[in-house]
């Protein structure tokens, strides 16, 4: 029996977004993930590590206009040296 594993084993976890790839490697190797140690190294809670390992994808930020945008010209005129 010949089993070929196409796994990149040399990578570094720098952020929470790298945890999905890490989970795949650990499952292929049948190893357990030490969530507490990962949490200490990344500076987050271990429940956050668990959430990202289970496939959590954060929402994108919305491009929302500021309430002051429509008054920008008025504010600039009031703050200028001519007024």
**Low-confidence parts, pLDDT < 50 over ≥5 residues?**
none
Structural class: mainly alpha
**Gap from first CA to last CA:** 85 Å
* Most strands sheet: none
Written account of the structure:
With 83 residues, the protein is an all-alpha fold. It has a domain at 9-60. It is built from four helices and no strands. It has helices at 19-28, 35-42, 46-53, 72-79. The longest helix is centred in the first third of the chain and has 10 residues, at 19-28. It is elongated, with a radius of gyration of 24 Å. The chain starts with 18 loop residues before the first helix and ends with a helix. 5% of the residues are buried. The model has no long low-confidence stretch (mean pLDDT 84).
Secondary structure: elements and pairs:
Elements: H1 19-28, H2 35-42, H3 46-53, H4 72-79
Key features of this structure:
mainly alpha, 83 residues, elongated
What would you say about this model in short?
Helix content is 41%, strand content 0%.
